[in-house]
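Repro:
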Amino acid sequence: MAGMTSTTLAAAPGTVSADSHLTLHYRISLGESGEDVISTFGGRPATLQLGVGQLAEPLERCLIGLPEGAHASFDLAPEQAYGPRNPALLQQLPRAVFDANTGGDADYRPGDPIEVPAPDGRRCAGVLKALDERHALFDFNHPLAGRRIRFEVEILGIL
């Protein structure tokens, strides 16, 4: 696995498979600064099932084959994690469309995450980048797109 930096394996039964239920601690930090984006270390562990979208698919791939008790870190380039930033996902909406889909009376500011309807009827989450009298500019890229990350895990249990 590209970027794996350290692993401590405990002798325990079972390994992680593509549909495993897991109890684990995990941390995602920015590769450039080391700043934590999210961490369960020092708190309650997470319980999740692989293969159902609870964890990003590239991160799930890092877990496959790890045994119960493993503690591993993976340094991932953008292409191995959340992908590169896509300029086509930076989109401008008319202010009237924005107001019609957000109620128009909320105090939204740049940096706020907001859900808006997609053309196919689903809802899409984006980050409001700019808002003026005529337009709302959204970034629909994943917030970690284009970023190097470190993904650290400790597999506490495989159910």
